[in-house]
Amino acid sequence: MDLTTNTSDPQRDVQIAAAFSSLQNAMTDYVEDLNIRLNAGLAVRRTQISFEVHEFEKADALVRIILTDVNIQYSNIIKRNNEMRSGTIDVRIGHDRSPALMFQDFPHPSVQVSYRDASKRLIDSSF
Fold first, then answer.
1. Which long-range contacts (CB under 8 A, 24 or more apart) does 52-61 make?
2. pLDDT digits over 41-54, tens only?
3. Three-state secondary-structure class, residue 98
4. What CA–CA distances, in Å, run from 53 to 56, 88, 106?
5. For the chain, which has fewer Cβ within 10 Å, the N-terminal or C-terminal residue?
6. Separation of alpha carbons 120 and 75, rounded Å
7. Whole-number Å distance between alpha carbons of 112 and 91
8. What's the gap between Cα 73 and its chain centre?
């Protein structure tokens, strides 16, 4: 896949940015919930085109989410296997014209997930 492809659809650009922002908010809410319920010791660090979930006072990210021109990319640590996983979250326009997240779910077709469920998928495997 060519990640340098220039999208010529401004509406799609807006949809991807909105999905990224919504995922960022859902991830922050989920991290706050984990910190309250489980005293997880997690923090979210943000930049304009990415955000990361870290354990307090540790430099390495458990989860890293990056906004690209055509989709959202992620990488996360699977602690139980001591490995790094990465992938792509596609953004589609949902039935109500809002952005919908599509996770690749091999060997099955991509599945639509809520922003909260996407947050859980990305963080829970890091424990």
1. 53/27, 53/122, 53/123, 53/126
2. 999 999 989 999 99
3. coil
4. 9, 17, 25
5. N
6. 14
7. 9
8. 7
User: DSSP letter string over 69-95?
Assistant: SS-EEEEEEEGGGTEEEEEEEEEEE-T
d(CA 18, CA 20): 5
If phi over 0 gives left and psi between -120 and 50 gives alpha, with beta otherwise, what is residue 92? Answer: beta
Placement of tokens 């807006």 in the chain: 14
Place of tokens 């859980």: 120
User: Do residues 104 and 15 lie in contact, with contact meaning Cβ atoms separated by under 8 Å?
Assistant: no
pLDDT band at 122 (very low <50, low <70, confident <90, very high): very high
pTM over the 0.70 mark: yes
